[in-house]
Write a structure and sequence with these properties.
The protein is an all-alpha fold. The chain contains nine helices and no strands.
Length: 174
């Protein structure tokens, strides 16, 4: 890893000096650090993780999130939703590269599915639309993602509306 900001995120866990554990790096950091390590994993200088490890990470975070929501423990849903969405977008990108054997350098475009995935995941359970697009574009400083983000959020919001009500609507009714 060449980037100094990414080096601060690395966790060696049981690895020898000079090596790091990708899963430990994501699990043993703050939520913001986990998001940063997922996004940096789509860059050549970032935390490198396999599709299988990303699937494990996403599944465990999903189980954590549904467990804390179901037991009436006060816990936030915004950052866990963002983490799951980032992990799902990263998993998509990793599988796309593996299945299509796409080894070309895409530069900043490899991060696009990660950010769009986070927005789409949050739109699915919060039912936010335009305001979520603005939040995501301002947070990531990526105004060029406005159109793909808006499309993904509107599709996610429409599909989730077919199956269930908003998580927050359901919480208000109980």
């Amino acid at each position: 890893v060449d980037d100094e900001a990414t080096k601060d995120l690395l966790v060696t866990y049981t690895c020898p000096e000079g090596y790091y554990n990708p899963l430990a790096t994501m699990f043993f950091n703050t939520e913001g650090g986990a998001i940063s390590s997922i996004i940096s994993g789509q860059e050549s200088k970032g935390v490198q993780i396999s599709a299988w490890e990303m699937f494990i990470y996403m599944s465990i975070w999903y189980l954590f999130t549904i467990s804390t929501y179901g037991v009436w423990v006060p816990a936030g849903l915004f950052l866990p939703g963002m983490i799951i969405g980032c992990a799902l977008g990263s998993l998509y990108e990793l599988l796309r590269e593996d299945i299509m054997s796409d080894t070309r350098a895409h530069g900043d475009y490899k991060v696009t599915p990660v950010i769009v995935g986070a927005g789409a995941m949050m739109a699915g359970y919060t039912r936010l639309s335009y305001s979520l697009v603005i939040i995501m574009c301002e947070t990531t400083d990526s105004i060029n993602l406005f159109v793909p983000m808006m499309i993904a959020i509107l599709i996610s919001r429409a599909v989730s509306g077919l199956f269930t009500t908003s998580l927050y609507d359901r919480a208000l009714r109980t």
